[in-house]
Design a protein that fits this description.
It is a single chain. This protein has 240 residues and is of the alpha+beta class. It is 60% helix and 7% strand. The chain contains 13 helices and four strands. It has helices spanning 10-21, 41-46, 65-76, 87-100, 104-122, 128-150, 163-176, 187-200, 202-208, 210-213, 215-223, 226-230, 232-235, and strands spanning 2-5, 27-30, 54-57, 60-63. It has a four-stranded mixed sheet, with helices on one face. The model has no long low-confidence stretch (mean pLDDT 93).
Length: 240
Protein backbone atom coordinates (compact mmCIF):
# COMPACT_ATOMS: atom_id res chain seq x y z
CA UNK A 1 0.00 0.00 0.00
CA UNK A 2 1.28 3.44 -0.96
CA UNK A 3 0.40 6.77 0.64
CA UNK A 4 1.12 9.93 -1.34
CA UNK A 5 1.68 12.69 1.19
CA UNK A 6 3.22 16.02 2.08
CA UNK A 7 3.34 16.66 5.81
CA UNK A 8 2.75 20.41 5.57
CA UNK A 9 -0.82 19.41 4.71
CA UNK A 10 -3.04 18.72 7.77
CA UNK A 11 -5.08 15.95 6.04
CA UNK A 12 -1.81 14.25 5.06
CA UNK A 13 -0.59 14.45 8.64
CA UNK A 14 -3.83 12.85 9.87
CA UNK A 15 -3.40 9.90 7.51
CA UNK A 16 0.32 9.58 8.25
CA UNK A 17 -0.12 9.77 12.03
CA UNK A 18 -2.88 7.19 11.97
CA UNK A 19 -0.90 4.73 9.87
CA UNK A 20 2.29 5.20 11.88
CA UNK A 21 0.66 5.14 15.32
CA UNK A 22 -1.21 1.93 14.50
CA UNK A 23 1.80 0.40 12.73
CA UNK A 24 -0.05 -0.06 9.45
CA UNK A 25 2.51 -1.02 6.77
CA UNK A 26 2.76 1.49 3.91
CA UNK A 27 5.23 3.05 1.52
CA UNK A 28 5.61 6.82 1.92
CA UNK A 29 5.47 8.61 -1.44
CA UNK A 30 6.42 12.28 -1.12
CA UNK A 31 4.49 14.74 -3.25
CA UNK A 32 6.32 18.04 -2.76
CA UNK A 33 3.63 20.72 -2.88
CA UNK A 34 6.25 23.47 -2.95
CA UNK A 35 7.75 21.98 -6.09
CA UNK A 36 4.31 21.75 -7.68
CA UNK A 37 4.54 17.96 -7.97
CA UNK A 38 0.77 17.69 -7.44
CA UNK A 39 0.37 19.33 -10.85
CA UNK A 40 2.79 17.00 -12.63
CA UNK A 41 1.63 14.77 -15.45
CA UNK A 42 2.79 11.70 -13.51
CA UNK A 43 0.73 12.54 -10.42
CA UNK A 44 -2.23 13.51 -12.61
CA UNK A 45 -2.29 9.97 -13.96
CA UNK A 46 -2.70 8.72 -10.39
CA UNK A 47 -5.32 11.26 -9.35
CA UNK A 48 -7.17 13.73 -11.56
CA UNK A 49 -7.97 15.66 -8.36
CA UNK A 50 -4.27 16.64 -8.10
CA UNK A 51 -4.38 16.93 -4.34
CA UNK A 52 -2.91 14.96 -1.45
CA UNK A 53 -3.34 12.63 0.35
CA UNK A 54 -3.85 9.73 -2.03
CA UNK A 55 -3.92 6.04 -1.13
CA UNK A 56 -3.00 3.37 -3.67
CA UNK A 57 -3.72 -0.20 -2.62
CA UNK A 58 -2.88 -2.46 -5.53
CA UNK A 59 -5.00 -1.16 -8.40
CA UNK A 60 -7.35 0.72 -6.03
CA UNK A 61 -6.80 4.49 -5.75
CA UNK A 62 -8.58 6.59 -3.12
CA UNK A 63 -8.56 10.34 -2.48
CA UNK A 64 -9.90 12.46 0.40
CA UNK A 65 -8.34 12.07 3.82
CA UNK A 66 -11.48 11.12 5.75
CA UNK A 67 -12.32 8.44 3.18
CA UNK A 68 -8.74 7.16 3.41
CA UNK A 69 -8.89 7.05 7.21
CA UNK A 70 -12.17 5.11 7.17
CA UNK A 71 -10.74 2.73 4.58
CA UNK A 72 -7.71 2.06 6.78
CA UNK A 73 -9.94 1.49 9.82
CA UNK A 74 -11.94 -1.17 8.00
CA UNK A 75 -9.10 -2.75 6.05
CA UNK A 76 -6.71 -3.07 8.98
CA UNK A 77 -9.14 -4.08 11.75
CA UNK A 78 -8.02 -1.43 14.23
CA UNK A 79 -9.49 -0.92 17.70
CA UNK A 80 -13.19 -0.10 17.63
CA UNK A 81 -12.85 3.28 19.36
CA UNK A 82 -11.25 4.89 16.30
CA UNK A 83 -14.49 4.55 14.31
CA UNK A 84 -17.02 2.87 16.60
CA UNK A 85 -19.39 0.18 15.40
CA UNK A 86 -22.04 1.56 17.76
CA UNK A 87 -24.54 3.48 15.60
CA UNK A 88 -24.71 6.65 17.68
CA UNK A 89 -21.00 6.84 18.50
CA UNK A 90 -20.11 6.42 14.82
CA UNK A 91 -22.65 9.11 13.99
CA UNK A 92 -20.83 11.45 16.40
CA UNK A 93 -17.54 10.83 14.61
CA UNK A 94 -19.19 11.43 11.25
CA UNK A 95 -20.91 14.53 12.59
CA UNK A 96 -17.55 16.07 13.45
CA UNK A 97 -15.91 14.95 10.20
CA UNK A 98 -18.77 16.51 8.21
CA UNK A 99 -18.69 19.77 10.18
CA UNK A 100 -14.96 20.40 10.19
CA UNK A 101 -14.41 20.89 6.44
CA UNK A 102 -15.96 24.35 6.24
CA UNK A 103 -15.36 25.29 9.86
CA UNK A 104 -12.26 24.40 11.87
CA UNK A 105 -10.28 23.15 8.86
CA UNK A 106 -11.24 26.09 6.67
CA UNK A 107 -10.52 28.73 9.29
CA UNK A 108 -7.25 27.29 10.63
CA UNK A 109 -5.98 26.85 7.09
CA UNK A 110 -6.95 30.41 6.20
CA UNK A 111 -4.88 31.82 9.07
CA UNK A 112 -1.92 29.71 7.97
CA UNK A 113 -2.24 30.67 4.30
CA UNK A 114 -2.61 34.37 5.05
CA UNK A 115 0.52 34.33 7.17
CA UNK A 116 2.64 32.22 4.80
CA UNK A 117 1.30 32.27 1.24
CA UNK A 118 -0.22 35.76 1.06
CA UNK A 119 3.12 37.63 1.28
CA UNK A 120 4.61 35.31 -1.37
CA UNK A 121 1.70 35.73 -3.78
CA UNK A 122 0.76 39.37 -3.18
CA UNK A 123 4.21 40.77 -2.41
CA UNK A 124 3.10 42.42 0.83
CA UNK A 125 2.04 41.56 4.35
CA UNK A 126 -1.60 40.64 4.82
CA UNK A 127 -3.75 43.66 5.83
CA UNK A 128 -4.41 43.75 9.56
CA UNK A 129 -8.20 43.79 9.20
CA UNK A 130 -8.11 40.70 6.98
CA UNK A 131 -5.85 38.87 9.42
CA UNK A 132 -7.92 39.88 12.43
CA UNK A 133 -11.12 38.65 10.76
CA UNK A 134 -9.53 35.29 9.94
CA UNK A 135 -8.31 34.82 13.52
CA UNK A 136 -11.75 35.71 14.85
CA UNK A 137 -13.39 33.13 12.57
CA UNK A 138 -10.90 30.54 13.82
CA UNK A 139 -11.75 31.39 17.41
CA UNK A 140 -15.45 30.91 16.72
CA UNK A 141 -14.75 27.44 15.30
CA UNK A 142 -12.65 26.61 18.34
CA UNK A 143 -15.53 27.72 20.55
CA UNK A 144 -17.77 25.22 18.79
CA UNK A 145 -15.16 22.48 19.01
CA UNK A 146 -15.03 23.02 22.77
CA UNK A 147 -18.68 23.72 23.56
CA UNK A 148 -20.46 21.41 21.12
CA UNK A 149 -18.08 18.57 20.32
CA UNK A 150 -15.69 18.12 23.25
CA UNK A 151 -17.81 19.50 26.10
CA UNK A 152 -16.55 17.92 29.34
CA UNK A 153 -15.44 14.62 27.84
CA UNK A 154 -11.82 13.41 27.58
CA UNK A 155 -12.25 13.02 23.80
CA UNK A 156 -14.83 14.12 21.23
CA UNK A 157 -16.82 10.86 21.29
CA UNK A 158 -16.25 9.98 24.93
CA UNK A 159 -13.54 8.29 26.95
CA UNK A 160 -11.41 7.12 24.04
CA UNK A 161 -9.73 8.76 21.07
CA UNK A 162 -11.38 8.55 17.64
CA UNK A 163 -10.76 9.75 14.10
CA UNK A 164 -12.55 12.96 15.07
CA UNK A 165 -9.86 13.90 17.61
CA UNK A 166 -7.07 13.10 15.18
CA UNK A 167 -8.57 15.17 12.36
CA UNK A 168 -9.27 18.10 14.69
CA UNK A 169 -5.81 18.15 16.20
CA UNK A 170 -3.82 18.33 12.97
CA UNK A 171 -5.88 21.34 11.88
CA UNK A 172 -5.31 23.19 15.14
CA UNK A 173 -1.55 22.74 14.73
CA UNK A 174 -1.55 24.49 11.34
CA UNK A 175 -1.77 28.16 12.47
CA UNK A 176 0.66 27.42 15.30
CA UNK A 177 3.34 27.18 12.63
CA UNK A 178 2.85 30.89 11.94
CA UNK A 179 2.91 31.91 15.60
CA UNK A 180 -0.87 31.90 16.12
CA UNK A 181 -1.77 29.63 19.04
CA UNK A 182 -5.50 29.07 18.94
CA UNK A 183 -5.42 27.12 22.21
CA UNK A 184 -3.93 29.94 24.27
CA UNK A 185 -6.25 30.68 27.18
CA UNK A 186 -8.24 27.50 26.57
CA UNK A 187 -7.22 25.07 29.33
CA UNK A 188 -9.85 22.46 28.41
CA UNK A 189 -8.62 22.26 24.81
CA UNK A 190 -4.99 22.31 25.92
CA UNK A 191 -5.59 19.32 28.19
CA UNK A 192 -7.39 17.55 25.34
CA UNK A 193 -4.44 18.23 23.03
CA UNK A 194 -2.08 16.64 25.53
CA UNK A 195 -4.29 13.55 25.75
CA UNK A 196 -4.42 13.22 21.96
CA UNK A 197 -0.64 13.57 21.70
CA UNK A 198 -0.14 10.92 24.36
CA UNK A 199 -2.47 8.48 22.57
CA UNK A 200 -0.69 8.96 19.25
CA UNK A 201 2.81 9.02 20.74
CA UNK A 202 4.41 12.35 21.60
CA UNK A 203 7.64 11.76 19.68
CA UNK A 204 5.75 10.72 16.56
CA UNK A 205 3.38 13.67 16.89
CA UNK A 206 6.18 16.22 17.29
CA UNK A 207 8.25 14.78 14.45
CA UNK A 208 5.25 14.79 12.13
CA UNK A 209 4.70 18.50 12.76
CA UNK A 210 8.33 19.63 12.41
CA UNK A 211 7.91 20.97 8.87
CA UNK A 212 4.76 22.99 9.49
CA UNK A 213 6.10 24.48 12.73
CA UNK A 214 9.07 25.92 10.84
CA UNK A 215 7.16 28.66 9.00
CA UNK A 216 10.27 30.74 8.29
CA UNK A 217 11.76 27.74 6.53
CA UNK A 218 8.57 27.35 4.50
CA UNK A 219 8.65 30.96 3.36
CA UNK A 220 12.31 30.69 2.35
CA UNK A 221 11.54 27.54 0.39
CA UNK A 222 8.70 29.27 -1.45
CA UNK A 223 10.74 32.33 -2.38
CA UNK A 224 13.52 30.19 -3.82
CA UNK A 225 11.36 27.72 -5.73
CA UNK A 226 11.09 28.39 -9.46
CA UNK A 227 8.25 25.89 -9.92
CA UNK A 228 6.13 27.55 -7.25
CA UNK A 229 6.83 30.95 -8.77
CA UNK A 230 5.09 29.71 -11.93
CA UNK A 231 1.95 28.98 -9.89
CA UNK A 232 1.63 32.56 -8.59
CA UNK A 233 -0.98 33.65 -11.18
CA UNK A 234 -3.26 30.72 -10.32
CA UNK A 235 -2.86 31.42 -6.59
CA UNK A 236 -3.92 35.07 -6.87
CA UNK A 237 -7.60 34.08 -6.95
CA UNK A 238 -7.42 32.91 -3.33
CA UNK A 239 -6.52 36.36 -1.99
CA UNK A 240 -8.37 38.83 -4.22
Amino acid sequence: MELYLHLVSPPCRAVYLFAEALKIPFEFKLVDLFAGQQHSEEFGKLSIVKKVPVLKDGGFVLTESTAILEYLVQKCSVADHWFPADLQQRARVNEYLSWQHLNLRFHCSKVFLLRTLYPFVMGSEVPKEKMDAAVEDMKQSLNLLEDKFLQNKPFIVGNKISLADLVAMVEIMQPLGTGVDGLEGRPKLMAWRDRVKKELGEKLFDKTHEAVLNSSGLQHKMQNNSELQKLKPSLLKYFR
